[in-house]
Amino acid sequence: MAETETKKTVKRERRAPPLPRSRKNRPAPPAAGPHASLMFLRLAPRKVRLVADTVRGLMVGEALAMLKYRPQAAAKPLAKLLLSAVANAENKGGKVDPDALVIKTLTVDQGPKMRRFMPRAMGRAYRVEKKTSHVYVELGTVGR
Question: What is the value of pTM for the model shown?
Answer without folding.
Answer: 0.75
